[in-house]
């Protein structure tokens, strides 16, 4: 099971570290208020990010996750993201 750490780096920028299998990766992700409103309006940006990384890790390795991206990019690769992520955030 991966350990996901999230640090707010100011503004919309968050640094996400994923530790798993003796290694770690670091990702810079922009999460705008409009992203939170769209995907999980009752959640914090951190809760949405944590659920989003759980979503990604269920589908690809930590090393396959882009090192820098805007949160909505996820649905370009995984069209089911907007449909699935609200329930994943609610389960947090």
What does this structure look like?
With 92 residues, this protein is an alpha+beta fold. It has one domain. The chain is built from four helices and four strands, in the order βββααβαα. A four-stranded mixed beta sheet has the order 1-2-3-4, with helices on one face. The model has no long low-confidence stretch (mean pLDDT 96).
List the helices and strands and how they pair.
Elements: E1 3-10, E2 13-20, E3 23-30, H1 33-39, H2 45-57, E4 68-70, H3 74-77, H4 81-90
Parallel strand pairs: 3-4
Antiparallel strand pairs: 1-2, 2-3
Helix pairs in contact: 2-4
Q: Which structural category do the helix and sheet elements fall into?
A: alpha+beta
> Biggest sheet, open or closed, and with what strands and sense?
4 strands, mixed
Mean residue pLDDT:
96
Helix and strand succession? EEEHHEHH
Strand content: 25-35%
Total discrete domains: 1
Question: What is the percent of helical residues?
Answer: 25-40%
Report the total helices: 4
Radius of gyration: 12 Å
Distance between the termini: 15 Å
Strand order of the largest sheet: 1-2-3-4
Low-confidence stretches: none
What's the count of strands? 4
Overall shape: it is: globular
Give me a quick take on this structure.
The protein is an alpha+beta fold and 92 residues long. Helix content is 37%, strand content 29%.
């Amino acid at each position: 099971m991966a350990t996901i750490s999230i640090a707010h780096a100011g503004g919309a920028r968050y640094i996400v570290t994923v530790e798993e299998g003796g290694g770690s990766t670091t990702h810079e992700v922009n999460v705008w208020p409009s992203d939170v409103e769209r995907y999980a309006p009752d959640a914090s940006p951190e809760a949405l990010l944590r659920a989003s990384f759980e979503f990604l890790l269920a589908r690809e390795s930590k090393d396959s996750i882009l090192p820098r991206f805007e949160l909505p990019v996820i649905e370009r690769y995984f069209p089911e993201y907007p449909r699935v992520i609200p329930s994943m955030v609610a389960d947090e």
